[in-house]
Amino acid sequence: MENNLQISVQGHLGVITLDRASHLNALSLPMIHGITQQLQDWHNDPQVQAILINSNSPKAFCAGGDIRFLYDSYQNGNHNYQDYFADEYVMLNSLRQYAKPVVVFLDGYVLGGGFGLAQACHIIVSSEKSRFAMPETAIGFFPDVGATHFLSRLDDIGVYMAVTGEQISSSDALHLDLIDYLVASEQLAQLQTELVNASTLNQQLIEQLIARHLTTPAPSKLRHYEEAIQQHFAHADLAQIEASLLNPHPEHADWAAKILAILQQRSLLAKQISLKLQQVGRGLSLEQCMQLERDLQDIWFEQGDMIEGVRALLIDKDKQPKWQTENSELMQMFEELLPVSRQQRQASVQV
Fold first, then answer.
1. Among the residues of 282-326, which ranges form H helices?
2. Domain locations along the chain
3. Which of 26, 111, 115, 333 is deepest in the core (most CB within 10 A)?
């Protein structure tokens, strides 16, 4: 089966190139399986000393998950959508735990599942062209693929990114430590050539080669709004955040009005759960965050707004999603998924 990956060994570098440019490299299930399998195949190969993941698209590294596949799977009554998430998380864990250095080159859109894929790599190199976002609330979903961990470490800015789905630049990502290095887009090919020609590859030598190509980042626009983000997105619940945006500092009035308008278009359930995930994620390990996301994914298609969001934006394209106004059952189920709730239930069973 075509898995939309280009695989090669160049020198001591194993290269996995995402090759689904027509879909901005949205991760299909065969792509996920292919990456996992290739990591296994190279694990004991002495020639391959490091891995590079990159893209063949001039527009995107990866625009996220294959949401059309997920929608069709659910509507057809099969469980392929659950298998997709399970296998995606196996891939992410394989990357994080891989014994050899995994480098990723980002040059274009890095969204949703693509953002999670990049965060699972060991050395993250981005060009100035990259744009980053976890835009899931726009389709009635929540930021997953580890965002409960990597965004929650940014505190109020993580809440802002998770709930609004707004894009940030590579300069912003560098400022927030979401990438490791900034290299000019036109230098990435030369950097790859130097990695290929290296007589040996380990993390230290790879980072020394990257250091020769670093470029000065443009000013971070997000940094200008950090104080405003902290003012508005530090509140404990969604209603307080939105009320706060109605009363911004005059300097940030236009920005606040824009952000409030975006929030008001999003699914209420998706916003509420995204906020809660960011809040609880601050106190959880990466493994706990990933498990919480996985458990929530498996109930979201029945309880959440994703099917309606995908219908409105991708299927019928009427852009008029009919979001739920409340779902107390979902909120209760979410509370029971939290690690503390699990421990309490286990303790009550043992008594």
1. 286-303, 306-310
2. 1-339
3. 115
